[in-house]
Every structure is written in structure tokens, then in C-alpha cells.
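hiii so um. not sure if this is the right channel but i have a protein structure encoded as C-alpha cells and i wanna go backwards to a sequence. like what aa goes where. can anyone help
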């Protein structure tokens, strides 16, 4: 085996290990929750956002996709269990949004990894916007067209945005500060 192959294998193994660690952190974050009607508040956003910041777009989004695959395969890693039927839960769109949000956050950070704190906050907020866009659209569609529990625009905005966004904004700030410090320290 030549040196470049060995180096590539180590890099690949290290990336897989980091992805596994973040997948586990996302699972833990799912079970640290504050009950809010319709859309529970969890720490998943913190860990999915940090995955994007610290692992980059590809591996950060990949860690979230591994989490989704585990849950859909039946491992009870989601806030309310697991299994393929979970796609019919009204909050499943947020899980899709976590993957897309981690990817976008990572992509923005990759363009300026040693950027300012404002750049990190902006990346986290962009990821948050994707999470909310996917999540709220899914809640609306699944409730109104599948579950038969009509949900109007105002209750959607109230329960899935106004009640949840203050906590998620705090999580974005925490992720930006932590992620920037960890990247600058060269730990990951």
C-alpha cells in the first residue's frame, strides 16, 4: 500500500468516526426535549448545525442522513420512536430539514472556514431557515391532506414557528460560538 492510499484510508476512517459521533449526538439531542404542542423542542438542531459547521456540508449532512436511515429502519432514535411509518408523523419534515440545513450550514462555512462570528451565525441561521421551511411545509401538508386534522396558517405559525424559534435562535448562537471556537482550536 502506498503512502497516499494509507493517508486516504485514515482520512476516510476519521471522517466516518466523526460522522458516527455526530449521529449519536443527534440521537441524544432527540431525547433532550421540552414539550411544545405540535412541534416538540429538542437539542437536535444544535447537533445537526454543529455537524454542518465541524464536519462540512458532505459529512455533516451525511451524519444526519445516517440518523434518518437508522430511524426509518426501525431503531427508536426519533423523538417519538422510529420505523418507516414515521414519515407520516407531522414533524418528519423537520428531520428532512435537519439534513438539508446541516448541508447548507456546512457549505457556507466551507467558503470561509476562518470567518467572523457573524459569518458563522449567518450560516447557522440559513440552515435554520431551511429546517423551518421543510418542517412547516410538511406539518401543513401532512395534517391537511393526509392525517385529516386540518391546521390553519395561524396555528401553524404559532406552534411551529413563534413558540419554537426563540429557543432555536439561541441554539444557533450557541452552535456558531462553539463551532467557531472548535474549528479555530483545530480539534476537528
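sure thing!! here u go:
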Amino acid at each position: 500500500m502506498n503512502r497516499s492510499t494509507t493517508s486516504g484510508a485514515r482520512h476516510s476512517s476519521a471522517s466516518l468516526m466523526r460522522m458516527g459521533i455526530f449521529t449519536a449526538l443527534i440521537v441524544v439531542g432527540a431525547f433532550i426535549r421540552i414539550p411544545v404542542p405540535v412541534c416538540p423542542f429538542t437539542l437536535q438542531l444544535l447537533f445537526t448545525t454543529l455537524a454542518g459547521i465541524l464536519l462540512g456540508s458532505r459529512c455533516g449532512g451525511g451524519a444526519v442522513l445516517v440518523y434518518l436511515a437508522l430511524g426509518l429502519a426501525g431503531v427508536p432514535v426519533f423523538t417519538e420512536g422510529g420505523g418507516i411509518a414515521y414519515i407520516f408523523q407531522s414533524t418528519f419534515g423537520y428531520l428532512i430539514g435537519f439534513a438539508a440545513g446541516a448541508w447548507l450550514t456546512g457549505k457556507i462555512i466551507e467558503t470561509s472556514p476562518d470567518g467572523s462570528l457573524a459569518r458563522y451565525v449567518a450560516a447557522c441561521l440559513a440552515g435554520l431557515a431551511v429546517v423551518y421551511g421543510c418542517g412547516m411545509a410538511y406539518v401543513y401538508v401532512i395534517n391537511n391532506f393526509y392525517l385529516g386534522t386540518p391546521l390553519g396558517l395561524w396555528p401553524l405559525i404559532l406552534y411551529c414557528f413563534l413558540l419554537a424559534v426563540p429557543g432555536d435562535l439561541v441554539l444557533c448562537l450557541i452552535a456558531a460560538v462553539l463551532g467557531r471556537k472548535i474549528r479555530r482550536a483545530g480539534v476537528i
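oh and The first strand starts at residue 33 and ends at 34.
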